[in-house]
Amino acid sequence: MRDLTLSEIERLRSEEADAAVPLEMDEEAFRGFYDRTARTLRAYLARVTGDGALADDLLQESYYRFLRARGDYEGEAHRRNALFRIATNLIYDSRRRARVAPLIDAPAFEIPDRRDEARSTERSADLRRAMARLKPRERALLWLAYAQGSSHKEIAESLGLRTGSVKLLLFRARRRLAALLTSARPADQERSRL
Amino acid sequence: MKLHCPFEQELLDAIGARRWPDRAEPALREHVARCGLCADVAEIAGAFFEDRDCARAEAAVPSASAVWWRSQIRAREEAARVALRPLLIVQVIATICAAAGAIALAPAASQGIRAALAAIGASEWLALPRDVSFSWLLGAAAYTTLPLIAACVWVVLAPVVVYLALDE
Predict the structure, then answer these.
(1) What Å distances lie between residue B78 and A13, B73, B120, CA to CA?
(2) Under an 8 A CB cutoff, do B65 and A9 touch?
(3) A178 and chain B: CB distance < 8 Å anywhere?
(4) Which has the closest alpha carbon to A148: A119, A164, A170?
(5) Which of A45, A140, A146, A169 has the highest count of CB atoms within 10 angstroms of its CB?
(6) A62-99, pLDDT tens digit by residue?
(7) Contact A36/B at CB under 8 A
(8) What residues contact residue B132 under an 8 Å CB cut-off, 6+ apart?
């Protein structure tokens, strides 16, 4: 995703007076909201899709749709959950599209190789490999619950699920992931010994 | 089947504060050793905490201004598209009417063209009669040239109209 140049921003500023399109919030409020949520949302998108470039595209698209949605939000948390709900739906849509046209843009899950592990810890590299083997909804559930510390109610709002189902789905996803991590560990230990 | 353990939050707090496992309460450690659910949580939660920090550090997000302006541009484009929709519908209807008119007038036009070709073929048309008059010239032009011009204009304009109508 290309960043705007300064001259482009200036040109757009001058055009703003011509035709301002009403969006969900004004620019100042958006800046604050974006600064509080963008990194968290980008991390969520990157880990659930497993594709950094796709995560960048979905980030922009999520904020655009959020701004156009003109929802009636009760507060910051509600607004944030709505943003994550939009992002989650976009992940599912992109997955459906990739399934329809797999030859064009089926995103491969970015599994870190040994060089990347120098940057991230070995444990988080193991986690990413294990996450790659889960379904997107399981990845989303686990990320929201354990990386973001969201409550079951917040997870339900973000993923469009019933609060009652979150407990069971999270239990199953956690079990699968724990099993994958446990089974991956002896192989890694074997490698490090060699 | 137990889906949730009351110790889970305490365990998450200990992991979040990096007290797990060495500096955690002995009671909590004992519980995790016995509870399969908490053992799973302990297994994955620490990895998620670390990976979250990595993911946030790696995340290079565009500036809020860039995202705001891109959204403005798209919103404007979308608004323009919506505003142009009735025009598009009118264009499509006009194209259909024009095509229907052309089909309806085709037999009459072909008769005119045939007559024009016959007149061109006849030598008396090329060699002007002695008693040539203005009305004769007008009649000949109307009979031969105008249908040809109309046909040429239609051949040129039809693709343009179709292009404009289907531009969206």
Answers:
(1) 19, 9, 55
(2) yes
(3) yes
(4) A170
(5) A45
(6) 999 999 887 788 888 899 999 999 999 999 999 887 76
(7) no
(8) none
Q: Which residues of A touch B58 (CB under 8 A)?
A: 43, 46
Tell me which amino acid residue A155 is.
I
The question of ipTM being above 0.90 is answered as no
CA-nearest residue of chain B to A56?
Answer: B61
Q: Is B90 on the interface with A (CB under 8 A)?
A: no
Enter the pTM of the model: 0.67
Confirm or reject contact between A127 and chain B (CB < 8 A): yes
Number of Cβ pairs closer than 8 Å across A and B?
Answer: 134
- Tell me: domain A115-194, CATH 3.10.20.590, correct? no
Say how far apart CA A124 and CA A113 lie, in whole Å: 12
Q: Is the peptide bond before A102 cis (omega within 30 degrees of 0)?
A: no
Q: What are phi and psi of A70, to 5 degrees?
A: 50, 55
Lookup: tokens for A4: 């705007």
Locate the domains of chain A by residue range: 22-110, 115-194
